[in-house]
Structure formats: C-alpha cells, structure tokens
Amino acid sequence: MIALIVAFAKNQVIGNNGCIPWKIKGEQKRFKELTTENVVIMGRRSYEEIGKPLPNRTTIVISNTKNFNGENCFTAKTLKEAIELAGDKDIYISGGAKLYEEALPLVEKMYITEIDCDINGDAFFPPFDKEQFIKEIDERYEGEIPYTYVTYTRK
Ligand SMILES: NC(=O)c1ccc[n+]([C@@H]2O[C@H](COP(=O)([O-])OP(=O)(O)OC[C@H]3O[C@@H](n4cnc5c(N)ncnc54)[C@H](OP(=O)(O)O)[C@@H]3O)[C@@H](O)[C@H]2O)c1
C-alpha cells in the first residue's frame, strides 16, 4: 500500500524556509499513529528538518547528495529505489513538495490534514484531480487554528 501523508493550509502551503510554518499541539497525532511500524519516505530537506530517524518505523530518505544510514534509516537515490527498499510494508510518502508531486500518480490513499487558514510559505502541495478520489472527512478539531483530518481514496 502506497499512501501519502501531508498537512496543508487553505492556500496549499506545506512549508516555509525549510520548516512547517505552524505549531498546533496534537496535529501530528495521526501521522504518528499511521506511520508507526511502517515506512516513511521523505526528501532530504524534510529529513534534515526532523534531524533524526523517527522512532519505531523505517525512514527512507531520498537524496543524491547525502547519505543517512543508521538503525531503521536508509537513503535512496530515487522514489522507485525507495519503494523497492520498503519491501512489503505500508509506505507513507511524507514530503516535501517535489516528492509529493512525483508520488501523486502512485498513491492509493492521501491522508491530509487541512489546516483551516491561509499561511505564508514557499513550499506547496501540488494541485491534483479531485475527481480521481473519494474524499472522507474523518475528524475536525477546533482551536486557535482549527484543522480537519480527511482521507482521499483513489476511485
Ligand atoms: N506540511 C507537511 O505535511 C510537510 C511535510 C513534509 C515537508 N514539509 C515542508 O516542506 C519543505 C521541504 O520540502 P522541499 O520540497 O523543499 O524539499 P524535500 O522534498 O523535503 O527535499 C528535497 C530534496 O530531496 C531530494 N529529493 C526529493 N524528491 C526527490 C526525487 N523525486 N528524486 C530525487 N531526489 C529527490 C533531493 O535531495 P538532494 O538535493 O540531496 O539530492 C532534493 O533536493 C519544508 O518546509 C518542510 O517543512 C511539510
């Protein structure tokens, strides 16, 4: 199973200056729940933001300039190579922008956190054809910055 997982603002912003431009307590709960014991594939800049492999899951970083290897952490040169490395575990493509764009045609599911405001940024989730997916609204959280967990499943 290949899925992608992302949080984006109303204006599709996912990042700014190499960071996620919001801090909302609890918002990453679903990321942790879904990816634990599975495989996360991410671009080099996204990995460098986190700075270390995530616990209790396999991290595969895509990079042609650096190597990140350690316990449960591998480096691949392409998305194809990363998918092959993942074997038969569930795969969660975790950004950033270029990787989401390349993965979009391959994913069965998209776990999206819709952040309910516009935010300034320099990295965006790519446009996609909503007609190709069925959208389910899973859970809405109110607060200073409200957000909603939604799932898109390919038709
Ligand atoms: N809101 C969210 O859910 C979310 C999730 C993840 C990231 N983000 C944000 O997104 C931003 C980072 O995204 P980004 O697009 O700038 O960078 P990125 O995709 O994380 O990293 C880009 C680098 O990854 C490698 N790479 C990525 N895709 C590749 C591909 N298909 N083939 C070969 N190499 C590939 C290359 O590394 P080399 O240069 O080493 O070859 C490339 O320079 C940050 O602001 C981060 O906070 C947000």
SSE diagram, text form:
Layout: E1 2-9, E2 13-15, H1 29-35, E3 39-43, H2 44-50, E4 58-62, E5 73-76, H3 79-86, E6 91-93, H4 97-103, E7 109-115, E8 123-124, E9 133-141, E10 147-154
Parallel strand pairs: 1-6, 1-7, 3-4, 3-6, 4-5
Antiparallel strand pairs: 2-8, 7-10, 9-10
How is this structure best summarized?
This protein is of the alpha/beta class and 155 residues long. The chain contains four helices and ten strands. The longest helix has 8 residues, at 79-86.
Overview of this structure, please?
- With 155 residues, the chain is of the alpha/beta class.
- It has one domain (29-149): Dihydrofolate Reductase, subunit A.
- Helix content is 19%, strand content 35%.
- The chain is built from 4 helices and 10 strands.
- It has helices at residues 29-35, 44-50, 79-86, 97-103, and strands at 2-9, 13-15, 39-43, 58-62, 73-76, 91-93, 109-115, 123-124, 133-141, 147-154.
- The strands form 2 sheets. It has an 8-stranded mixed sheet, with helices on both faces. The chain has a two-stranded antiparallel sheet with strand order 2-8.
- The longest helix has 8 residues, at 79-86.
- It is globular, with a radius of gyration of 15 Å.
- Bound molecules: NADP nicotinamide-adenine-dinucleotide phosphate.
- NADP nicotinamide-adenine-dinucleotide phosphate is lined by residues 6-8, 14-16, 18-20, 42-46, 49, 62-66, 78-79, 94-99, 102, 123.
- The site of NADP nicotinamide-adenine-dinucleotide phosphate has 30 residues, from strand 1, strand 2, strand 3, helix 2 and helix 4.
